[in-house]
């Protein structure tokens, strides 16, 4: 059962960004260049491709907001304007919620499962206990934004993936997955220290 804070956050997010049933109106004219679409072999819903949308003026340009229940990430480009990307989020019991900042940015990051991941599923993760170098087969994909809270690494990443058709689902160990082409686009826009709120 969702707690009161989660319900309030969900209601706030729906009011601020619009829900699936009543999506935020897309801008018809813009100077913002988005990654090409569609992508061959990708079977995600069209609404999960990057699109420019209107948001409330109160959101700080340069900030990131993730609506976990809708599988959307919003990067605020300027007042009232955001790029909305589709994401995969954590399984129900592993959904990350809270405030953080982008503490690191890494191209083709290395990856090491957390002790908790190994404990939950040793058959899948124990063989990678010493880590895996970055590259096309690495589960973090092409780029990663490392989320920190009060100077401490949360172990949560916004990252690419080797499973792009998982976007739009709640399947991860807590991290926020994106299509590689989309996370590269976001990575190139986001600055270190950017505030991140995950609802």
From TrEMBL:
Residues 1-21 form the signal peptide. This is L,D-transpeptidase. Residues 62-199 form the L,D-TPase catalytic domain. Belongs to the YkuD family. It comes from Albidovulum litorale. The active site is at residues 159, 175. SUPFAM superfamilies: L,D-transpeptidase catalytic domain-like (SSF141523). Pathway: Cell wall biogenesis; peptidoglycan biosynthesis. Keywords: Cell shape, Cell wall biogenesis/degradation, Glycosyltransferase, Hydrolase, Peptidoglycan synthesis, Signal, Transferase. It holds the Pfam family YkuD. It comes from the Bacteria. InterPro entries: LD-transpeptidase (IPR050979), LD_TPept_cat_dom (IPR005490), Transpep_catalytic_dom (IPR038063). The lineage of its organism: Bacteria, Pseudomonadati, Pseudomonadota, Alphaproteobacteria, Rhodobacterales.
């Amino acid at each position: 059962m969702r707690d009161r804070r989660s319900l309030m956050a969900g209601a706030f997010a729906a009011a601020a960004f619009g829900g699936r049933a009543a999506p935020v109106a897309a801008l018809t004219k813009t100077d913002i260049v988005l990654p090409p679409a569609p992508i061959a072999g990708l079977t995600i819903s069209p609404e999960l491709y990057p699109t420019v949308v209107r948001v409330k003026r109160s959101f700080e340009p340069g900030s990131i907001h993730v609506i976990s229940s809708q599988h959307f990430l919003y990067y605020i480009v300027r007042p009232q304007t955001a790029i909305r990307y589709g994401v995969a989020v954590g399984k129900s019991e592993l959904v990350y919620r809270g405030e953080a900042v982008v503490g690191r940015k890494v191209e083709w990051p290395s990856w090491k499962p957390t002790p908790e991941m190994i404990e939950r599923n040793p058959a899948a993760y124990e063989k990678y206990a010493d880590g895996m170098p970055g590259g096309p087969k690495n589960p973090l994909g092409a780029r990663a934004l490392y989320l920190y809270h009060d100077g401490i690494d949360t172990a949560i990443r916004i990252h690419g993936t080797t499973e792009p058709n998982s976007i739009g689902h709640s399947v991860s160990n807590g991290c926020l997955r994106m299509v590689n082409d989309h996370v590269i686009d976001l990575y190139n826009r986001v600055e270190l220290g950017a505030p991140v709120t995950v609802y």
